[in-house]
Amino acid sequence: MKTEPQVKRATESLTGARALAAGWVLLFHLVTFADPLWGQNKVFRAFAAQGYMGVDFFFVLSGFILALQYLGPLREPTRKPVARFLLLRLARIYPLHVLTMLGVALVALLGALVGKSSANPYQLSLVGGIANLLLVHSWGWLTTYSWNEPSWSISCEWFAYLCFPLIALTYGRIRRPAAAWLACILPLAALLVVLRLLGESTINQTLRFGILRISGEFLSGCGIFLLMRSGVAARLPSWSVFVSIALLGAALAFQITDPFAVFLFALLILTLVANPRTWPARFLATPVMVGLGEGSYSLYMVNQRIILWVNHVWPYGRAAAHSALFRGAAALGLAGSIVLVAWFTYRFVEQPGRRYARSYIDRWFPNARSQASLPGELRPSSVGPMLEGPLSGEGPLPEIETLSTRG
Description:
Elements: H1 4-33, H2 42-49, H3 54-70, H4 79-113, H5 126-133, H6 152-171, H7 177-197, H8 210-229, H9 239-253, H10 257-274, H11 279-284, H12 287-294, H13 296-313, H14 324-364
C-alpha cells in the first residue's frame, strides 16, 4: 500500500516529466523554425526532429491524470458534476488560449501599421477565429493552421474532455487486471491501424486527424489508471523504470519513436508512478523540475509564436554570416527569452485566470461535489495532498479527493 508521501512524490515526478516533454517540443520548434542558429550535430538534430512526439506524451498523461482524478466521481455522471468538470477544464486551458490569440492579432495589427508583412502570414480569418474560440479548429474542419498554431492540441484536448464523461461511464466499471491491460494497449494499437488504413504513415496528425490521435492516447492514459487501481502497478519492480527509459532511449537512437514511443510513454508513466523511490522519479520530483513542469503549458503555447516573431524582426538567416559562438549565444538567448515569457504568462495569466474562473464555478455549483471510494492504496485518505499539486491543473479539489494534467 502506498503511503501519502509516496503517492505525492509519484505524481510530482510526472509533473517533472512534463517539463522534459515541453522542452522536447521546444527543441523541435527551434530547429524547425530557427534552423540557422543550430549546428549540424546529427545526434542533436535527430533528437530534436522527433520532438513533436512530446505532444503524444502529454496526451497519454492527460488521460491518466483525468482518470486518476475524475473517473470515480463521474462513473455515474449527472448534469451538475459533468458541467462543473467541463467548466473547470475550460478554466485550465482557456485564459492562455485567448491571450495568445489576442497577441497574434496585436502583432499583426502593429505590423500592418508600420507597413510590414509577415513571411509567414497569420491566418486571421473570421472562420478560423470563431473555430479557435470554440476550440473546434482541430476537429478535421479546417485545412490550414489559424491564429496560434500550437493550439491545435488544446482543441483536441477539449474534444477528449467532452468525451470523458462517457469514458468514465465505461472505463469506470473495469476492475480486472486483464481488462485493464486491454484498455491501455488496444486504443493505441487501434489508433495505429486506423491511421494506416487512412493512408497516414506518421502519428504526427494535427488538423485533419488530431482527434483520432488524442483518442487513442487519451484512452490509453485512462487505462494506466485502471492498471494502478487493479493492483498491477504495485507489483512492478523498481528496475521496470530503467527498462522503460532504456527502451525509449533505444527508440530515440534508432529514430523509431514514431509510432512506437506512444506505447513506451504509457509504460514510462506506469513505472514512474509505481516506483516513486527510484532515482529517475526522485530527480523528476525535485522542486526545479516540478516548477518547470508547472509552466509547461505556457511554454508550449507561446514558444512557436515567439520564434516566428523574432525571425520577422531579425531573420535567422543572417546568423550564417557569424561565428558558431555568436549563433550559440543567439540560440540560448532565444530559448531563454521563451522560457521567461512562459514564466510570465504562467504566473500572471494561467494562475490568476484559473483562480478567478474557479471562484465563479464554485458559486454556480456549490453542491456538485462528490467523492468516490477507491480500493486499497487508492482510497481518498491517502491521496488528498496530491490534488493540490500541479498535475490537477485546478488547485485543491477537496470534493474529489479520489486519486487522480498536459499541454
